[in-house]
Design a protein that fits this description.
The structure is a single chain. 73% of the residues lie in helices and 2% in strands. It has 11 helices and 2 strands.
């Protein structure tokens, strides 16, 4: 607090004619100008964010995200989430950074007073995402293929592009089917994100226990001859 106060005092001493508009006290005209400047700044940031989104949407990655939207909508994913998933193929952690870049800390959802909202709150309000969308994303990401570096290793180890393609498209298809079923059923039964995720893990645990108790055939080999 002390450092900020010192900066304010220094700026007031050097620019007294502007300071009264930045930190208005009792002057009503200065307060009105300050409010107008804040609104103008918010509108400028909104325009810049929209321009950035237009560039992303018209890019090859954006067009690919749009192309996948008719299918991914059943999992609750719009083109923005699709773009984040596609970018995560280079590095999984880049999905979060991509969404953060698209929504730009929620500056489009600034309050009229000029105070910025938290990024996650602004993203929720401007996108319409719910905890159920977040749960669906988690389910999808758990099943999707690893990054491109892992796929290259698969190609090197198997010496086959076919196995590499299988390692990419099979997990992606499985993840999309499971996430779509998860999101659609949760919406049908009006489950919250937490309840849907709990149900999902309970079902998985049930199948793991059932498979664990299923009898397995044992094969004994001696000198290449099965006993």
């Amino acid at each position: 607090m002390g450092g900020g106060k010192g900066v304010d005092e220094k700026y007031e001493a050097e620019n007294p004619e502007f300071y009264k508009f930045i930190m208005p006290k009792t002057d009503q005209d200065a307060k009105a100008i300050n409010s107008a400047l804040r609104k103008l700044s918010a509108q400028r940031k909104t325009i810049l964010r929209e321009q950035k989104n237009d560039k992303i949407e018209s890019s090859l990655l954006g067009m690919a995200g749009r192309a996948l939207e008719p299918i991914s909508k059943f999992a609750g994913f719009d083109w923005r989430i699709n773009v984040a998933f596609l970018s995560s193929f280079a590095a999984r952690e880049s999905a979060v950074a991509t969404l953060g870049s698209i929504y730009e800390s929620g500056k489009a959802a600034e309050a009229s007073s000029g105070e910025e909202m938290r990024p996650e709150e602004a993203m929720r309000q401007s996108s319409g995402y719910t905890p159920l969308h977040a749960a669906s994303i988690i389910v999808f990401m758990l099943l999707t293929p690893p990054c491109i570096a892992t796929m290259i290793v698969v190609k090197m180890q198997t010496n086959s592009y076919a196995w590499m393609a299988f390692g990419i498209f099979f997990p992606f298809t499985l993840a999309l089917v499971v996430a779509s079923a998860f999101f659609t059923l949760a919406n049908a039964y009006e489950l919250s994100g937490l309840a849907a995720m709990g149900t999902y893990y309970f079902i998985l645990l049930f199948f793991v226990i059932v498979l664990g108790f299923m009898p397995q055939k044992r094969q004994n080999w001696s000198g290449g001859v099965k006993k």
